[in-house]
Amino acid sequence: MKGSVLVCGFATRHVARSAHAAGYTVYAVDHFCDQDLSWYTADRVRFDDLADIPCAIQEICSRHEVEWLVPTSGAEMLPSRVPVLGTSPEKAARFMDKILTQEFFESLSIPVPGIVGPGRYPAMIKPRTGSGGWRNMVVHNDGELASWLDAFSHQPFLLQEVVPGVAASVCCVADGTGGARAIAANRQILREEEGLYFGFSGSVTPLDHPGVQPMMETAERIAAVSGCRGTLGIDFVIGDKPWAIEVNPRFQATLDTVEAATGQNLFSLHARACRGELPSRRPLHSGYAVRRILFADRDMVVNHDLSSLFPAVADIPWPGTSFEEGQAVVSVYGWGRSLDAAMDLLDTHMKRVRQYMG
Fold it and tell me: I need a labelling partner for 314 at 20 to 30 A (CA). Which of 3, 33, 159, 303 fits?
């Protein structure tokens, strides 16, 4: 074993699996504590609200000796007595604020959708802080803007111009001192409801697009000067040029498809980058991998044990888990030598999962 790590955040299964495969003893603090998280962790604590994470970390640390803390979504700026293996909370803070991120991109003269004032439509409205994209929305008039503000309690927001293109991201590793390497470019699958909402619902790796090469070069430039350590992701909209959208200073939800398509263990690359060791070149892709998150189409209870479908599924709920309409239930995968083959296998797996779920 290479040591012990505590992975903490809203969802940790993907990171815990990678760390376990890399030879670490893994503990987790997680909102879901799905069935397969128990396969990769020596101990775990579930929490309800993000404010409960510090107490859950303390509980794990009272039972085990933890060498490193690895934050995921929701825990990027969490203070801790355990050393962070990754980007420090102080460095992460800049990228958890979308206005500061906008200013960062502009300081590098990197194309970014411009901020617009009220009254200019259509516009992309998003909260100033937060992740996942599920609150992002295109508004077309004052009424839609007012509805968004009411729905999200008038929290601080920004309005950006809407740019055309494909939602994409680049997974990078950085050493925190000016070096970075792009690992993979991904197409992001967004969960659009009536064409308005932009929550993450899956990924395809690699992304096939004529603009991938300049996008990856831009991502490396961003990652190199970001001050981040270890893995990070840069979100783009890629059209006639790559528009930078956000920096995620942590492991990304694309981890599964990145590893499946490249054959690389991303946690190992992350740990080496934190020690100042970067890959000499970008990894090659051996095929295509796709992940789709299956959401509940009604209030429901999953009574079947979906673990029998592994490795076609992950984030596997315990039998008897109840879900409200719209909640994420399980992740489903496809893979193959070509994109068509990967999508066909995904479709087969989706049909099988739905049969199990009724």
Answer: 3
